């Protein structure tokens, strides 16, 4: 059986704590690897080695750092198939979805190739008599990322690509449930020219997380996961004087107006609600049709689409709609929440209970579910299910629909489907949610904009990727300078080039 350790100073090393966790094949339920769980001492050692490597990297010309990012993009494209297969094997995603996971991370790396421009400071000539004033963006030093199982390629790249481009060293603690791809990404970065030690990968559990949060060398921490853990990490990190950007759970509503193209809306809900088995923080888990007629027609269109979904392992072909959830515990939690919905009186319009796939009876597969007539007092409405379960909450007016999304504790993403520009504009302006789609069901911004939720979906002042990431991973230093007059003799007659 494969043993997965850590990635320290440019190479894989075995774990030394004696503690391990099982890595499952979600499609079969079989253990396929053991991953080491780092001790506090191992984490501290990785941080110390990163701190030793960072000054030279931080002093490297930003253009040279950008060239490492450029070479990394080429290697990601070269190894796309290999990375996707490893991702699907441990997570359970379909191959096309796994490639999308990698591609969205790759696009952030592409954005970071522009680091020389993004790191430019500001300059004021003659701020006073013979005085110039300018600012510089400088790296923080050693920073860390704690990333989730559901995007084992994308979210690590969202964090370490801008951090490295800014000149920081980075210590990554990926999910112990699917650790292979982050290790592979670290190897590719070294192949791309990243100096050894600048990126460290330590696999682990809460002990490793707390070690990162408590170590005074670590200057900033990024996290994506559940809201309780996001709040815990934010509070502990900031109490220790660190910057923190921590993103948590979601309950994303999609408002469907009476004038919407209902076929388009139904197709959008299928992909947004059931893609990746619903294990996305930007999944649409609540459909809010406005008016009884709209609701009846929408549910009528959803049912046959949902019943036709192909649920199977990634090896069954590229026409698979979604695969298993990540663990047996995740499956059990989804099934418990489905039962709570029934107990509360919601109508189960599509019943995915008891789903079983021949030859994969021990896999963590969950059939697709559609609830209708869900109310906001139900547990299935309040909680993030993180599974292939779509709830329909019927609203009698636009204002009621808007209020549902605004009143929910989560504020990650939302969408409205309508042909009315006035309604769309009003919705975008008034909604208290960080990412908004207009006739777009999963409004994940592209790499050159920022990603982040509001309310209990996000803790911290700055978002992920885009310009915010370069602000998060740098400090601004402002210099006021005055020079005595004089003449410098001599000159050079050849064009200067970067050494």
Class per helix and strand makeup: alpha/beta
For the secondary structure, the number of strands is 23
**Low-pLDDT residue intervals, each spanning 5 or more residues:** none
Report the major sheet: 7 strands, mixed
Which descriptor suits the 3D outline?
Answer: globular
Q: Helix fraction?
A: 25-40%
Widest sheet: strand order? 15-16-17-14-13-19-20
First-residue to last-residue Cα separation: 47 Å
Strand residues, percent: 15-25%
How big is the Rg?
24 Å
Structure description:
The protein is 39% helix and 22% strand. It is globular, with a radius of gyration of 24 Å. Helix 10 packs across helix 11. The mean pLDDT is 96. With 499 residues, the protein is α/β, with parallel strands linked by helices. Strands 15-16-17-14-13-19-20 form a seven-stranded mixed beta sheet, with helices on both faces. Strands 10-9-8-11-12-22 form a six-stranded mixed beta sheet, with helices on both faces.
What's this model, at a glance?
The protein is built from 16 helices and 23 strands.
